[in-house]
Amino acid sequence: MSFWQRALRKPDLAQTLQADHQLARTLTTRDLIALGIGAVIGTGIFILPGTVAATTSGPGITLAFLLAAVVCSLAAMCYAEFASALPVAGSAYAYGNIVFGQLFGWIIGWALILEYMLAVAAVSTSFAAYFRSLLAGFSVTLPQAISGSFAPAQGRYVDLIAVVVVLVIGLLLSRGLSTSMTINRLMVGVKLLIIALFVLVGCFYVRPTNWQPYLPFGAKGILAGASLVFFAYLGFDAVSASAPEVKDPQKTLPRGIIGTLIIATVLYMLVAIVLTGMVPYTKLNVADPVAFALNLIHQPKLAGVISIGALAGMFTMMMTMIYSSSRLVYAIGRDGLLPPFFGRVVHHLPNHALWTVTVIIAVLGGLVPLTQLVNLVNIGTLIAFAFVSIGIIPLRRHKQIENTGFKVPGYPVVPILSFLFCLLLMSQLPLETWLMSLIWFGIGLVIYFSYGFWH
Questions:
Q1: H or E segment at 159?
Q2: Which residues of 100-114 are buried (b: 16+ CB within 10 A; e: fewer)?
Q3: 131 membership: H or E segment, kind and range
Q4: How many Å apart are CA 14 and CA 12, to the nearest integer?
Q5: Is the omega angle on the peptide bond into residue 412 within 30 degrees of 0, that is, cis?
Q6: 52 neighbors 225 (Cβ within 8 angstroms)
Q7: Stated pTM of the model
Q8: Within 13 Å of residue 198, how many CA atoms lie on the same side as its CB?
Q9: Which of 196-200, 369-373, 425-429 has the lowest average pLDDT?
Q10: Transmembrane residues, as ranges (predicted)?
Q11: CA distance readout (Å), 416 to 91, 151, 340, 424
Q12: What pLDDT, on the 0 to 100 scale, is given for residue 251?
């Protein structure tokens, strides 16, 4: 076997489809939508509608969310077809491995590891900041030494809350999916109730004159706003990582992915409509526009409740992403591209992969300032989206794969459009992001050619 034949070889399909039989199938459509909403609806819903309206789109931010959702739905449909045809662990990594070959599967998997781990680490520091401000409201202040990332010159050594919340989520997930899904559904319920409360209360303070002019930045503002809020929808792809633990995956997975996107779009648009109706869009370029609007209408107690909603949102996002990243690392270890330790299943759960991921994220969140690394989350996501989108074409041509479930409508136009839009968004990312991603993928290729290539 030549070098490139070995690098581009594809796994045995029947063996791959049977590889995850040790994992228990317990998840329903309701669980998947809760997972998806948990990942997609985070603190962004309390921030993005205000800041993007103020700087880019005006009250037309609602159209920007709708446009972004339409574009995002292209990738979502591609994910839904793959999930229906190949209900295996590993999400986009596994799909790429099967239709493009081992090397491309590894590149996609390495991109997703970057996306999931950095996203959770960054959100854990935001969670810690919100939690400290909540404690401050009760006159409780933590020592500076345990209140921030490692910076000895400023007297900070570890962000203890960020570390603890990640470890708690890891512990919950290690106890089994029934317990963690119950807690996830509860948190998602709290978050949705708080969003509904804001929309209902805010309706009484809407002034239609605040929606004039509706498009102050013109059609260009809608397009620019859509490119910014596109990233608000990221996370639905995490649903497909649960494939081997889902009941009736051919029907349940597409419902979970597409249902997540529809519900998220409705919620984002409702918040945007009410927020820009309550306050002139020119005043919304603040760090916490929803709380700002509530304070403006003399509802400070409700503004405090919004902070609880933000904490719930961040908690569910971290739980979904830690769950997804553990299944990804498990799938890569199962296939031999990482040591087999990561691919072992203990009591129907891949706990070796789970605890490895949890500890790495806890260290990153507790010690490393992540402000410069967050853009890498976007490029990792877009690389996975691009491969999944264009991968529908070889999937349809694969003679061994029979998909009797969901299929992307408008084939092959929709997958190609989705692929091109991912490339367009990647081209908008700053040069530093590209340079840092090249370093990350360089490290990934060293690991692949020194271990995975031979195993």
A1: none
A2: bbbbbbbbbbbbbbb
A3: helix 102-136
A4: 6
A5: yes
A6: yes
A7: 0.85
A8: 35
A9: 369-373
A10: 32-54, 60-82, 103-131, 157-174, 186-208, 214-236, 257-282, 302-324, 353-370, 376-396, 408-427, 433-454
A11: 20, 46, 36, 12
A12: 86
